[in-house]
Design a protein that fits this description.
4-stranded antiparallel sheet, 216 residues, Transcriptional repressor PaaX-like central Cas2-like domain-containing protein, Alpha-Beta Plaits, 8 helices, 3-stranded antiparallel sheet, Arc Repressor Mutant, subunit A, alpha+beta, PaaX-like_central, 15% strand, elongated
Length: 216
């Protein structure tokens, strides 16, 4: 499974997924994080840090600081004053932290809560593209998830419906479009790999109904 497709390094994904999947259900997320507002500039900062774009400062963000010019080019697309102001707020909210160097400069890093936000952004923005021409194959996602992983099970089912999957049964969903990377990401995020299977089939007895349902 390629995490880079979703703009996050594999190491960041693996480290934080265990803490994250328990709060991924959208109601839990809103209850936990409603006190911390993250605007578009803050979201951009978190996503850039997740992709490995370095941002170095003259000092820690809780005091006056300047942004070093040798930082990654991606940061130049943001207004510097807005960037400085937002960095300070993110640092105060513990969504980002910093790593100090021997020369006194610091480099920004994602905090634990910031990494959770990034994973949530990736989950929220996943889309399954519809090809111009259907390849004639059906993708079936089936799962048998134990009760102790109920939150992950509920979140998986809700996300499959959101992505346009049609429920064949309570724990079986179908879609006519390629979606392996997207399903792998979701399954790994919620730590459900042992309980989920994906089939690719050419024929199904309700094929005509499904073709009408999906317009293929």
């Amino acid at each position: 499974m390629s995490c880079s497709k979703f703009g996050i390094s594999k190491s960041t994904f693996l480290y934080y997924r265990k803490e994250t999947y328990k709060v991924m259900h959208h109601l839990d997320i809103m209850r936990e994080n409603k006190q911390i507002h993250v605007g578009p500039v803050a979201k951009k900062i978190l996503l850039l840090l997740a992709t490995g774009a370095r941002l170095s400062l003259t000092r820690r963000p809780d005091v006056y600081f300047r942004i070093l010019r040798e930082t990654a080019a991606e940061w130049g697309k943001l207004n510097e004053e807005s960037l400085r102001r937002t960095v300070k707020k993110l640092y105060q909210s513990k969504l980002i932290g910093c790593r100090e160097h021997n020369d006194g400069t610091v480099e920004l890093v994602l905090g634990e809560e910031g990494a959770k936000r990034v994973l949530r952004y990736q989950l929220d923005t996943i889309e399954i593209k519809k090809p111009a021409k259907w390849d004639g194959l059906w993708r079936v996602v089936m799962f048998d998830i134990p009760e102790q992983k109920r939150e992950g099970r509920n979140a998986l089912g809700a996300k499959l419906k959101e992505l346009g999957f049609y429920p064949l049964q309570k724990s079986a969903f179908i879609l006519p479009y390629a979606c392996k990377d997207e399903i792998d990401f979701i399954v790994e995020l919620f730590e459900l790999r042992p309980y989920v299977r994906m089939l690719i089939v050419k024929e199904i007895d309700i094929g005509l109904h499904l073709k009408q349902k999906f317009g293929v």
